[in-house]
What we know:
Radius of gyration: 45 Å
Distance between the termini: 163 Å
Largest sheet: 6 strands, antiparallel
Order of helices and strands: HEEEEEEEEEEEEE
Shape: rod-shaped
Helix content: 25-40%
Structural class: alpha+beta
Amino acid sequence: MNEIGVGIQEELNQAVLNLEIARRELDQLEQRIKNEKESLDADLTELELEIRIEEKTINNLERQLALADVKPNKPGVVTWINDDIGATVHAGDIIARVADLRSFKVEGKISDIHASKIMVGNPVRVRIGEQSLKGIISGIQPTIQNGIITFSVRLEDKTNRELRSNMRVDIFVITSFKSGIVRVKNGPFVNGSGEQDIFILNGKTAVRRRAFIGDSNFDWVEIKEGVQPGDKVIISDMERYIHRATITIKD
């Protein structure tokens, strides 16, 4: 009985030892699998990063290739092109200018002595020959160069047929409004504001009269004193006759 008991105990101990060895081998195998998985994950992350870098490089090359084929982003007419054959062109260099002749914007310049009166939103009139276009000041450059203020004008009719690229026009900025005044057509007879002599037409006679000139714009002159509604004012240059009280008008 003792020999049988000893044999069974030895077999049991051996089985326990084998189980412990198997468990350790399993732990080692699981750790090795875990390490290999972490290594593979790291390799995969590095590979994905390399793929993203290569994709970005390809996209940049495709963008540069697309930029090499010059295309305007809007329809228009080519107004200038760099025709220096063989010249090196760097990123950002201007090689052509395209004007959208369907609409125009106006850039104005005025002396800085009027700085306090020039504001965004001021109505303006843009004179093209005998035609006057309405607009407003849409922007003012923050810096003054050589005593000149530069501002932008947004036209109501920015597709007017009279407009041309790089055309020079006269811009009149409206800084105030008045109503209920006596006004006459602007002309050479005006010599600034304040008191001055003008001539009123009375039949065949022009009579000199002292008047007080107020504000004016490109079309009209305000007469504060000396003229009544219905008076006919001679608006041509009368400086050579200003010493005479009356002038006889001949046909």
